[in-house]
Amino acid sequence: MNVYEAIHTMLAVRSYADKPIPADAVRRIVEAGWLTGSSMNMQPWHFIVVEERATLRQLGALARSGPYIAEAPLAIAVVIERTTYAVSDASRAIQSMMLAAWAEGIGSNWVGFHGLDAAKPVLGVPETLDLFAIIPFGYPAQPIGKGKKRRKPLETVAHRERFDQPFTG
Ligand SMILES: Cc1cc2nc3c(=O)[nH]c(=O)nc-3n(C[C@H](O)[C@H](O)[C@H](O)COP(=O)(O)O)c2cc1C
Fold this sequence. Notes:
CATH class: Alpha Beta
Number of strands: 4
CATH superfamily: NADH Oxidase
Structural class: alpha+beta
Bound molecules: flavin mononucleotide
Radius of gyration: 17 Å
Number of domains: 1
Strand content: 5-15%
Helix content: 25-40%
Strand order of the largest sheet: 1-2-4-3
Number of helices: 6
Largest sheet: 4 strands, antiparallel
CATH architecture: 3-Layer(aba) Sandwich
């Protein structure tokens, strides 16, 4: 799957098949985050790879907007430094990981942004860092309609040359 196709078809997946993700695929997903470019190459992130069922259940219980983490075979918690560009950098790394996973048939979704502090002790995250997001990964439980997205019309968010001129392709 090329990058354009991956972007076109990727959807948020919140329900996962009871099927483990092979170790080499886990490695590729983590590498996709690790290799992402960041502001001034500061790499203000840590990726905690979680596959223990008990920990996944704890994370699902603590992340109010992502109870389905409990059912995933894998979650990657993204921890960031408290620096100016860390949110942008980590967001970019998350998208890299999600697309890398999707390209090999593994779905995922972004859970959290704020409100994950209660989960920090579960993962041993130091007080000085923030638990920014938790990304559960897994093979989709149901076949998913490829690329059926609900988005604002392109011409209402894309512009040509000036804000008052819609981009119509
Ligand atoms: C910054 C950010 C935070 C998100 N937080 C959550 C969340 O806490 N729980 C959740 O189920 N989905 C979360 N999502 C996923 C969005 O709901 C999803 O990307 C959006 O609905 C589009 O889904 P689609 O690509 O399947 O159309 C988040 C997405 C982003 C980018």
